[in-house]
User: Which sequence fits this backbone?
């Protein structure tokens, strides 16, 4: 009975190992796809953001700080809502951006034109930045799941399966030894019966 139980557990361990290995391969493949998308977006946005921040610093130097603060507070409000999608058991966040409110009409004389240009450029890049944040979080979550899945695969491959196979061999050897002992006993009984 123990032999049958161990055979069943070993078959289950092999199936689980194969499923986890397939999941790991799929996760790694998806991870590299998301990583490529993230790096492409990063390389596209980095020079734009550098330009916008340089322009913002310049506009701050050319305008009165109180004027810039008032203009910033009178801007539309950006609201980010989150949802999740499932990629191979990992809940990946998806963010959507929505602007609310009206932008107050302000005199172009109060602030430098660089301020309005940088604010407009940043507003246009904001959806891409939100997407980049979602990709960054997806990479973190997928990396964590890859590490956890790899740990499980290794535990099955290097600990549980070899231990089950070793126990099966021991039980088979013990059963073979008992069978040989029973055959020897039968042969002795046959010899005794023949002798009488």
Assistant:
């Amino acid at each position: 009975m123990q032999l049958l139980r161990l055979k069943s557990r070993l078959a289950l361990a092999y199936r689980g190992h194969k499923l986890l290995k397939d999941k790991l391969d799929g996760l790694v493949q998806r991870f590299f796809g998301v990583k490529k998308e993230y790096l492409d977006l990063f390389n596209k946005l980095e020079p734009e953001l550098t330009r916008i921040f340089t322009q913002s610093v310049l506009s701050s130097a050319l305008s009165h700080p109180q004027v810039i603060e008032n203009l910033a507070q009178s801007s539309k409000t950006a609201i980010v809502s989150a949802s999740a999608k499932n990629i191979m058991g990992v809940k990946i966040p998806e963010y959507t951006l929505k602007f609310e409110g009206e932008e107050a009409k302000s005199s172009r004389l109060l602030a430098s034109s660089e301020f309005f240009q940088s604010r407009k450029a940043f507003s246009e890049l904001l959806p891409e930045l939100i997407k980049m944040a979602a990709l960054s979080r997806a990479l973190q979550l997928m990396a964590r799941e890859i590490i956890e899945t790899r740990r499980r695969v290794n535990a099955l491959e290097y600990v549980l399966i070899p231990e089950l196979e070793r126990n099966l061999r021991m039980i088979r050897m013990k059963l073979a030894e008992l069978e040989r002992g029973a055959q020897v006993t039968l042969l002795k009984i046959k010899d005794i019966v023949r002798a009488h």
